Amino acid sequence: EAGVAQSPRYKIIEKRQSVAFWCNPISGHATLYWYQQILGQGPKLLIQFQNNGVVDDSQLPKDRFSAERLKGVDSTLKIQPAKLEDSAVYLCASSLNWGAEAFFGQGTRLTVV
Amino acid sequence: TQLLEQSPQFLSIQEGENLTVYCNSSSVFSSLQWYRQEPGEGPVLLVTVVTGGEVKKLKRLTFQFGDARKDSSLHITAAQPGDTGLYLCAVMGNAGNMLTFGGGTRLMVKP
Lengths: 113, 111
Prior knowledge:
- The structure holds 2 protein chains of 2 kinds.
- Helix content of chain A is 0%, strand content 49%.
- By secondary structure, chain A is mainly beta.
- Chain A has one domain (5-112): Immunoglobulins (Immunoglobulin-like), CATH 2.60.40.
- Chain A starts with a strand and ends with a strand.
- Chain B has one domain (5-110): Immunoglobulin-like (Sandwich).
- Chain B contains no helices and 11 strands.
- In chain B, the strands form 2 sheets. In chain B, strands 2, 4, 5, 9, 10 and 11 form a 6-stranded mixed sheet that branches. In chain B, strands 1-3-8-7-6 form a 5-stranded antiparallel sheet, with no helix packed on it.
- In chain B, strand 7 (61-65) and strand 8 form a beta hairpin.
- The interface between A and B is medium-sized, with 23 and 22 residues.
């Protein structure tokens, strides 16, 4: 069974530029999460989708971050404009449903210079 | 203040030693999960504990959920270099949403 796929693996951008990350969850998984993991810290939940609806986005900085999962499958996370403090690994995870085991992708390492 | 406080933050030990890491909170949880994350990878679920006082074993790893379901510990016996990684505890919200992680314990086991 294929795991959670994320791309790109690495991205370097200048501050004030825009960037987008893509996630393809495990087939059939209704729940999708995006996390931000700053170096040396645990992952912080940004947004949780159930199919194509948002369950929770209370920790998403909505002035610069946006995410969508239009068809309830793939998802994109966008940052516009990026700040230095956005440098982190962005992890995508999916689970069969609410409360089920979450499976993580390898993440996208973003460096903002 | 973080929902889950993990300690220690860093731990460096020699191969063969035993160790215990902790996950504490002032809140009560219906269940708690432990993950391990290796460099360049996402976290991988090790175990879920559900019942207060529950002890689960996974080879050389022993997980315990506190009687009051507010804290948990992970004990590793005879640590090996392959145990090196970031150990994270996590809890679900009451509605089964919002998987929230602690800050993690970074373990290094030297050969």
